[in-house]
């Protein structure tokens, strides 16, 4: 048995939204038309049957108005019946009057063998069928029959001179089915045409309703090809959360890429100087000891530069759709560590944290924010530090923002030095230990979350106040 090539199964692909909606709408339309057609068909049959009964009853009443009896008791009727078919043999419409001593039939009943007609009581009505009969050509058939029992009582008559009689009108049973067949043909024809028109309109409406999605797809294609930088702003309300999230993701990725490029460029530019110094010293007549000292100095400098750039890159950007992070546990852990480091100062950190406040971002970003702000406060505080956390601004269909503030009772920062202090590598006081990048890291993180950092005077403790406001997230 030869072995063939293994068959490659095509991956299952979900149906498109247009195909799903069109299929569902078509099935619903077909079901609706079928139920409507069935209901109309049944209603027409009931109406046709009831109409036949009323028609036969009207014929009976017409005959009742024309029936006369002579003095000798003989029946008298006009030559022409209420419908010309009663005068045409085999027309399918028959009349019969049952008398005590016989019966009378219309000319249309000449030839067919009608079902036996019983005498009915005075005022008694009866509609029945289909009843078997034999047509003039000896073929079996059926009729519907309506009968009305009456009493003949001439003026001045005595009870002995009164006698009963019954008028019957019969119609071929095929009349109503023929009407039903004609109605059904017309009904399903019109419903079929209406269904095709509705299906076409449904397709057009569906394409029109899905046009915003196709527009989003076209815009995404343009972004992928580099022909556009982001999605447009004008979209239906239902698509705004999606398009806003995609735009935020595009902007986040663009910022990340730009930051990575900047970080690598800054690192390369920073390493050029120590490398050039070492090259110059190697080309000089310096002694081995001097070279060793210079290499060690420059290597330490390069190590500091690499650590600095890696720390900067580690705080770039944030992850969208991150789970909300509780703030108080992180703050307590940081404060416990800082209280050990600054135990000699005896600084006390107080919390005013709203239990409902959450940080929607990376836990590492929250630790960097809290760590740098609270440590900076511990450095400058005399005895008290206050951490305040509250929910920020809100917006429909968005995560709530956040207000995070750190106050201290230190000397504060002069207003004219605030822009300088926020620059990377600048310290508020050269006598205080540090590298001068903590606040710039905070500023980079806040900027990556599209927030704002405000520095000013603490109204409660009198020192500096660092206030971070993060806007509502996606």
Automatic annotation (TrEMBL):
<dbReference type="InterPro" id="IPR003594">
    <property type="entry name" value="HATPase_dom"/>
</dbReference>
<keyword id="KW-1133">Transmembrane helix</keyword>
<keyword id="KW-0067">ATP-binding</keyword>
<keyword id="KW-0808">Transferase</keyword>
<dbReference type="InterPro" id="IPR004358">
    <property type="entry name" value="Sig_transdc_His_kin-like_C"/>
</dbReference>
<dbReference type="InterPro" id="IPR036890">
    <property type="entry name" value="HATPase_C_sf"/>
</dbReference>
<keyword id="KW-0418">Kinase</keyword>
<dbReference type="InterPro" id="IPR036097">
    <property type="entry name" value="HisK_dim/P_sf"/>
</dbReference>
<feature type="domain" description="Histidine kinase">
    <location>
        <begin position="266"/>
        <end position="474"/>
    </location>
</feature>
<dbReference type="GO" id="GO:0005886">
    <property type="term" value="C:plasma membrane"/>
</dbReference>
<keyword id="KW-0597">Phosphoprotein</keyword>
<keyword id="KW-0812">Transmembrane</keyword>
<keyword id="KW-0902">Two-component regulatory system</keyword>
<feature type="domain" description="HAMP">
    <location>
        <begin position="207"/>
        <end position="258"/>
    </location>
</feature>
<dbReference type="InterPro" id="IPR003661">
    <property type="entry name" value="HisK_dim/P_dom"/>
</dbReference>
<dbReference type="InterPro" id="IPR050428">
    <property type="entry name" value="TCS_sensor_his_kinase"/>
</dbReference>
<protein>
    <recommendedName>
        <fullName>histidine kinase</fullName>
        <ecNumber>2.7.13.3</ecNumber>
    </recommendedName>
</protein>
<dbReference type="InterPro" id="IPR003660">
    <property type="entry name" value="HAMP_dom"/>
</dbReference>
<dbReference type="GO" id="GO:0000155">
    <property type="term" value="F:phosphorelay sensor kinase activity"/>
</dbReference>
<feature type="transmembrane region" description="Helical">
    <location>
        <begin position="187"/>
        <end position="206"/>
    </location>
</feature>
<keyword id="KW-0547">Nucleotide-binding</keyword>
<dbReference type="Pfam" id="PF02518">
    <property type="entry name" value="HATPase_c"/>
</dbReference>
<keyword id="KW-0472">Membrane</keyword>
<dbReference type="InterPro" id="IPR005467">
    <property type="entry name" value="His_kinase_dom"/>
</dbReference>
<dbReference type="InterPro" id="IPR058619">
    <property type="entry name" value="PhoQ/CarS-like_HATPase"/>
</dbReference>
């Amino acid at each position: 048995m030869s072995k063939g090539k293994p068959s490659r199964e095509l991956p299952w692909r979900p149906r498109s939204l247009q195909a799903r909606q069109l299929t569902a709408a078509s099935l619903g339309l077909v079901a609706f038309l079928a139920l409507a057609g069935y209901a109309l068909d049944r209603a027409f049959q009931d109406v046709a049957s009831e109409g036949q009964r009323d028609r036969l009853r009207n014929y009976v009443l017409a005959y009742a108005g024309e029936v006369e009896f002579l003095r000798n008791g003989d029946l008298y009727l006009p030559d022409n019946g209420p419908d010309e078919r009663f005068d045409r043999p085999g027309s399918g419409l028959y009349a019969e009057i049952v008398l005590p001593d016989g019966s009378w039939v219309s000319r249309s009943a000449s030839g067919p063998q009608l079902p036996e007609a019983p005498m009915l009581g005075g005022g008694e009505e009866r509609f029945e069928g289909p009843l078997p009969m034999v047509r003039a050509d000896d073929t079996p058939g059926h009729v519907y029959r309506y009968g009305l029992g009456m009493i003949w009582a001439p003026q001045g008559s005595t009870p002995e001179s009164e006698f009963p009689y019954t008028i019957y009108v019969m119609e071929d049973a095929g009349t109503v089915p023929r009407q039903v067949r004609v109605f059904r043909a017309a009904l399903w024809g019109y419903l079929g045409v209406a269904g095709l028109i509705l299906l076409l309109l449904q397709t057009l409406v569906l394409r029109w309703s899905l046009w915003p999605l196709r527009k989003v797809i076209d815009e995404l294609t343009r972004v992928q090809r580099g022909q556009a930088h982001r999605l447009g702003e004008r979209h239906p309300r239902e698509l705004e959360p999606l398009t806003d999230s995609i735009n935020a993701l595009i902007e986040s990725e663009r910022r990340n890429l730009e930051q990575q490029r900047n970080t690598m460029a800054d690192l390369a530019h920073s390493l050029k100087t120590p490398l050039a110094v070492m090259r110059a010293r190697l080309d000089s007549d310096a002694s081995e000891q001097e070279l060793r000292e210079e290499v060690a100095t420059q290597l330490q400098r390069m190590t500091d530069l690499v650590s600095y750039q890696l720390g900067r890159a580690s705080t770039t950007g944030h992850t969208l759709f991150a789970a909300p992070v509780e703030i108080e546990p992180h703050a307590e852990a940081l404060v416990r560590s800082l209280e050990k480091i600054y135990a000699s100062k005896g600084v006390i950190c107080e919390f005013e944290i709203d239990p409902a406040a959450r940080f929607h971002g990376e836990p590492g970003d929250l630790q960097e924010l809290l760590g740098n702000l609270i440590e900076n406060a511990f450095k400058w505080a005399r005895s008290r530090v206050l951490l305040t956390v509250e929910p920020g601004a809100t917006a429909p269909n968005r995560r709530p923002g956040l207000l995070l503030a750190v106050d201290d009772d230190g000397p504060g920062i002069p207003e004219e030095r605030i822009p300088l202090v926020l620059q990377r590598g600048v310290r508020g006081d050269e006598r205080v230990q540090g590298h001068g990048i903590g606040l710039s890291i905070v500023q980079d993180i806040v900027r990556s979350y599209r927030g704002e950092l405000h520095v000013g005077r603490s109204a409660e403790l009198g020192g500096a106040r660092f206030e971070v406001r993060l806007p509502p997230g996606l």
